[in-house]
């Protein structure tokens, strides 16, 4: 099951982008509710490795399950 980046919790740090072995994390357009940049996970590409969870410094920004209602996907 793919992971989810919670759009309104993400702070755009992007440590997850470089760490992802399958390049499934992409920058979202504009700002989120916090006024920061944000990223999203392509559920069809994610291999559920969990590396993004390990490297993200923002508590609760990435969830270990697919929750499309919490992640804005362009």
From TrEMBL:
Family matches, as Gene3D superfamilies = 3.30.70.20
Q: What cofactors does the UniProt entry give for this protein?
A: [4Fe-4S] cluster
Short name of any one Pfam family annotated for the protein: Fer4_7
Question: Ranges for the 4Fe-4S ferredoxin-type domain?
Answer: 1-30, 37-67
Q: Which keywords label this protein? A: 4Fe-4S, Electron transport, Iron, Iron-sulfur, Metal-binding, Transport
Q: Does the keyword Iron apply?
A: yes
Checking SUPFAM superfamilies in the record gives: 4Fe-4S ferredoxins (SSF54862)
Stated role: Ferredoxins are iron-sulfur proteins that transfer electrons in a wide variety of metabolic reactions.
This protein is called Ferredoxin
User: Which species is listed as the source?
Assistant: Floridaenema evergladense BLCC-F167
